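Entry 0007
Protein: Type I pullulanase
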Amino acid sequence: MYTGRFSAFLDALDKITILIPQSYRANEKLNFTLFFEGQKMGELLVDDVIQIEHYTKYICTAPFEVPLGEEYQIEDDKGMVFALQTGAVIRTPEFDELYYYDGDDLGAVYTEDKTIFKLWAPTATNVKLKLISEFGTEKGSIPMQRGERGVWSLTIPQNLENCFYSYLIRVNYIWREATDPYARAVSVNGQYSAIIDLSKYQRYEYSLPKLESPVDAIIYETHVRDFSHHANSGMNAKGKYAAFRENGTKTAQGYSSGIQYLKELGVTHIELLPVNDFSGVDETMIDKEYNWGYNPRHFFAPAGNYSADPHLPGKRIEELKQLIASLHEHGLGVIVDVVYNHVFQKEISNFEKIVPGYYFRYDVNGMPSNGSGCGNDLASERLMVRKLIVSAVKYWMEFYQIDGFRFDLMGLLDLETMREVERVVHSIKPDAIIIGEGWDLPTALTGSDKTTIGNSHKIDRVGFFNDKFRDTIKGSNFNLKDAGYVSGKGLSHEEFYHLVLNIGYDYPLGPEQSVNFVECHDNHTLWDRLQLANGAESNESRKRRHRFATSIVILSQGIPFLHSGQEFFRTKHGIENSYCSPDWINELNWDLREQNEETISYLRCLMAIRKSHGAFRLRSREQIEKHAKMVDLGPSCHSLLYDNVSEYGRWSRILVVYHHGEQQTAVDLPGDKKWGMLCGDCGFAANQGIEMNMKDFLLEPLTTYVFVQE
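Output (structure tokens):
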């Protein structure tokens, strides 16, 4: 059989594209026949002939819909034979309909007396299971049986606990080895899938305050390694899952650190950068390499580089579950950052080895879509990709008992998939948090189908990072000359009012969908950005701007989001994209925690105020427009009055004064009654007595104040 420059591809169930070198039988009319195992199956009807560079393309109709999973050949009328390969048929709706598998048993299902393996590989013509003992010795390969919907299965009636395995898949006449996309555990560096007895990892009972709305959350983003790696973190298991289980840790000067610090700070949820298995770090080289984790390799299995022993697949599962349980015990919810929009490298991914061409998007020219900027985009709109994503989300919710998700580059995911994610997540935990990046990126998906900010009205109970809020307050990520509000850029009262209340008509997010932030793991930290914008000023002035920006995040209507260390002026030493930078750039510097207790206390105070009164957590435009009013206290202030809000908390009237002036300013507080101030001494408690004795006040530069009346 000739398999060189002669090619044939099944591009639809009954359509075959044939490529023949132009030098072969030039100016002759060619006829083609379909064969299977040496038997003639029928003549192909040539629908069109197209000349392309060096080749003649024949578009043909097959005599029947060609079943996948078998090896067919094409023969021309002169006896030239070449292979029929699976082509673009796998990206057709008909393929999805014909081969969609709705079972919930893909992967390895272990019991003590047997393990059942199931793999969805409809284009494969042969599949074998490669089995490896727990000590790394290969035990041979065992043929699997093809069943309905292209699912291959095998039952081994032995106790295979702690053994490893992979699949050998033959597609388009080529054998490839791949790990299991549904593997719950993997070997070191994800080389093999692992067989684990999941029943050994028991669920536990925990209780967190129920969120009536996403606006009740205050999210704090951190990275497992960054959190504890610093020499002054006070934690022993530096850079590891186990650091989150260490209670009562302190810095060298006796300040709280670790999980105790998180509890004291006042945030409600900890968002962890990806903790599923990812590429980019050699897990055998302890502390030698660094990566954020946005190179996903296995969606269901936890990462090993944060484990005390990455060689033991069950160890990392146990440690991650203990981390989550520890946060729950301290009253903190857990949000996991997930990356379902791309993989590390398409060509070597298990997806591409198992069903080549199916899991990824392609443009009209047949080239891989690259909205992610990572060389590939997962085709979430295809039924078995959607199933994989939804199954992974469900597994993390049920097995790891987490409290929500942050979706990386959510705008690359289709709306139907995200609606199904939302339905499944909230059926398990009604108050779970779902947030994501709704950027509109150039992927091979129609704009109306993307989960973007512009389409936020098409999906409920999913929050979007508000880039307008970030860029207005901090300055543009993409134009370093754009100083931002806290660096002196002017805003009208109406512009500021619409921004912090999330009721502007030029931006589609309402409060329950707006994640308000000025800093996250991406791009410059706020401190580094302010150095670029205001490099000549003193550190004290820069700290005022920084603190001012964070106060706006905390008190605005919407969902406040803080980057770990933001509250004590975190720096990454000017590095904008630190995804693989060394620890000294990325680690959370606990020395800064010691040096900035006053600022931490002030922000802790503002978070306590936010949580104590529902006026800061209104849920709709109607509520906001009913109660919030602009108050003019002069050109250097933006002031908001929440009126008649006693139904939401202790205070009937709340005045928030954002003083953006760079000099002290005397103001007369509005109305005839005197006001009390909540946050002046940074020691606010919800039930403390407040003296109502203020009618005028001297505002400090770049500071936010909260005044109240009963």
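Curator remark: The longest helix spans residues 313-329. The domain at 96-178 is CATH 2.60.40.10 (Immunoglobulin-like).
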